[in-house]
Design a protein that fits this description.
By secondary structure, the protein is an alpha+beta fold. 52% of the residues lie in helices and 18% in strands. It has a five-stranded antiparallel sheet with strand order 2-1-5-4-3. Bound molecules: adenosine-5'-diphosphate (ADP). Residues 364, 368-369, 372, 396, 398-399, 401, 409, 414-416, 419, 426-432, 455 line the site of adenosine-5'-diphosphate (ADP).
Length: 465
C-alpha cells in the first residue's frame, strides 16, 4: 500500500529549513562555547596551581638548610586552601605531603618525571582515589639540576560541577531558542508569503470573461511586484489573444455564412417553381462554385489552426530546391492567366523546418502574385542568403498594394477592393497563413516597397548551420 504525502506548503518548508539551520547553529555554538569554557576553567586552575607552586619554591630560602630540603625551611602546614602539596627529592622520596596525601600519594607520570628532570614544569589531569585532580609538577633547580620536585594538586570536582551546570543550562536554552525560532520563523514566513496568497486570490478571480482586470502592484519593486508585473503582462497577452480569437471566429462565421446564404438562396429559388434542365444546371453550377469556395475556406481555416505548430520537424531544407518546386506550380498557374513566372537563384541556402508547410507559405505568395497580376505581367522568385538569413522573395509587376493597406493585408479575411470583385476571390487567409508558418519557423514575412510598382513579399528565415 502506498501513501501519498500531502504537499507541504512553502511556509512549512521554509520553517523546516529555518529550524534545521537554527538547530545546527545552536548545536555548534553550544559545543564550541562548552569546550571554550572548559579550557578557560582548566587554564584558570593551572594558573592558580602554578602560583602556589611558585610561592612554595620562592619561600624556600637557599642557605644552610637548602641541603635539608625545602620542607624544613617552609612552614607548609600554614595551609594552601583546597590545594594539596607534595614534595619529592631527587631520589624520588617524598619529603613532604599535605595531610590529605598521607595514605594516598600524588602519582607522577613518567612524562612529568622526565620533564621535571629536564627542568620543565608540566600540568596533567590524574586521579586521586576516586577523584579527578589537576596537578602541576614543578622542579626546583639547584646548580642546574632538579634537586626537588614540587607537586601541587587540586580536585576538579568543582570545575566539573560548573561545567555540568553550564551543560544543563544549554539543555534548557537550546530547545527554548529552537522553539522561539520555529515560532518566529513560521510567523515571518507567513508574513512574507501573505501578499503571495493575496496575489493568487486576485489572479484566480481574473477569468477568461474578465481578462481586462489586472493585479495591483504594491509599489515596493520587490520580487512580488515583479511577479505581479509578469502576470499582468501575461494577462495582457492573453486578453489580446482572446480578442483576436473572438474576432477571428466572428469573421470566420461571417465568411462561412455568405456562401451558405447564396447557396441556400439559389436552391430555394430553383425549387420555387418547375425549371428547365438548363436552369437546374445553371443553379447546380453556381452551387458547386459556392461549395468549392466553402471547401477552400474550410481548408484554409484548418491551415490557420495548424500553421503555428508546423515546426514539428527540424530537417534541413534546401530553400532553392523548394523555390524550384513552387515555381513549377506557379508556371502552370501563370500559363492559364498569361503571366510569366520565373526563378532567379542567387546563393544556395539551407533552412530548418517543415518542408510542406514552407512550400505552402511560398506557394501562397506565388498564387497571389499570379492572381493579382494582369495578363502579360511577370512574377519573379528569388532565393539568396544574407549573413545568417535565407531570403525567398516573390515579386510581381501587378498593381501592388497601397501603403495604407500594407499592414492590413496580413490580417485574416482582409481582401482589398480590387481582389473582392475577382471571381477567383480568395479566402483572405493566404497571407495570414503564410505569416504564421514563417513565424513558427523563427522567420519574418514582409511586404517591401518597390519603386517601380508591383508587390514584393519577402520571407526571411534563419539559415541552417
Ligand atoms: P486572398 O485569399 O484574398 O489572396 P491573402 O491573405 O493572400 O488573401 O491576401 C490578402 C489580400 O492582399 C488580397 O485579397 C489582395 O487584395 C492583397 N494581395 C495579396 N497579394 C497581392 C499581390 N501580389 N498584389 C496585389 N495585392 C495583393
Amino acid at each position: 500500500m502506498s501513501y501519498r504525502l500531502a504537499p507541504t506548503s512553502i511556509k512549512t518548508r521554509l520553517t523546516l529549513w529555518y529550524t534545521t539551520v537554527l538547530f545546527l547553529i545552536l548545536v555548534v555554538v553550544s559545543g564550541l562555547s562548552y569546550s571554550l569554557l572548559a579550557r578557560a576553567i582548566v587554564e584558570d586552575v593551572d594558573r592558580s596551581l602554578l602560583g602556589v607552586a611558585r610561592v612554595i619554591r620562592d619561600a624556600a630560602a637557599p642557605g644552610p638548610d637548602a641541603t635539608r630540603g625545602m620542607a624544613a625551611s617552609v612552614n607548609l602546614d600554614s595551609g594552601f586552601g583546597k590545594q594539596f602539596v607534595q614534595i619529592v627529592d631527587a631520589r624520588g622520596e617524598r619529603t613532604y605531603w599535605s595531610p590529605r596525601l598521607e595514605s594516598l600519594p600524588l602519582r607522577m607520570s613518567s612524562t612529568a618525571r622526565r620533564k621535571a628532570a629536564g627542568g620543565q614544569r608540566s600540568f596533567e589531569t590524574t586521579t586521586l582515589g576516586q577523584e579527578r585532580v589537576r596537578v602541576v609538577t614543578m622542579p626546583v633547580l639547584r646548580k642546574g639540576e632538579a634537586a626537588e620536585i614540587i607537586q601541587v594538586g587540586v580536585s576538579l570536582a568543582r570545575t566539573h560541577q560548573t561545567l555540568l551546570r553550564y551543560a544543563e543550562t544549554l539543555l534548557v536554552l537550546v530547545p527554548l531558542g529552537l522553539g522561539l525560532g520555529v515560532v518566529g520563523g513560521s510567523l515571518m514566513a507567513r508574513k512574507a508569503l501573505k501578499p503571495m496568497d493575496a496575489l493568487a486570490i486576485t489572479a484566480r478571480r481574473i477569468e477568461a470573461e474578465d481578462l481586462s482586470r489586472r493585479l495591483s502592484l504594491r509599489g515596493t519593486g520587490d520580487e512580488l511586484d515583479r511577479l505581479a508585473e509578469t502576470l499582468n503582462d501575461m494577462f495582457a497577452r492573453l486578453e489580446a489573444a482572446f480578442v483576436e480569437m473572438r474576432r477571428f471566429s466572428a469573421d470566420a462565421a461571417h465568411e462561412l455564412r455568405t456562401p451558405l446564404t447564396a447557396l441556400k438562396g439559389g436552391l430555394e429559388v430553383a425549387l420555387r417553381a418547375a425549371r428547365s434542365t438548363e436552369e437546374y444546371r445553371a443553379v447546380l453550377v453556381a452551387s458547386l462554385d459556392e461549395v468549392n469556395h466553402l471547401i477552400r475556406l474550410a481548408e484554409d481555416l484548418l491551415m490557420v489552426a495548424r500553421s503555428s505548430d508546423t515546426v514539428a520537424s527540424h530537417l534541413p531544407i534546401d530553400l532553392d530546391q523548394l523555390a524550384l518546386e513552387v515555381v513549377d506550380v506557379g508556371v502552370r498557374l501563370g500559363t492559364a492567366r498569361g503571366v510569366t513566372v520565373r526563378i532567379d537563384v542567387g546563393d544556395p541556402v539551407k533552412v530548418r523546418g517543415h518542408a510542406a508547410a514552407l512550400r505552402r507559405a511560398a506557394l501562397n505568395l506565388v498564387e497571389n502574385a499570379v492572381n493579382y497580376t494582369p495578363a502579360g505581367g511577370l512574377v519573379t522568385l528569388n532565393v539568396t542568403r544574407e549573413d545568417h538569413t535565407g531570403l525567398l522573395s516573390v515579386r510581381d509587376t501587378g498593381p501592388g498594394i497601397p501603403p495604407e493597406d500594407r499592414a492590413r493585408v496580413f490580417e485574416p479575411f482582409v481582401r482589398l477592393d480590387a481582389a473582392r470583385d475577382r471571381e477567383s476571390g480568395g479566402t483572405g487567409l493566404g497571407l495570414a497563413i503564410t505569416r504564421s508558418i514563417v513565424a513558427a519557423h523563427g522567420g519574418t514575412l514582409t511586404l517591401d516597397e518597390v519603386p517601380e510598382g508591383g508587390a514584393r513579399f519577402v520571407i526571411r528565415l534563419p539559415a541552417a548551420e
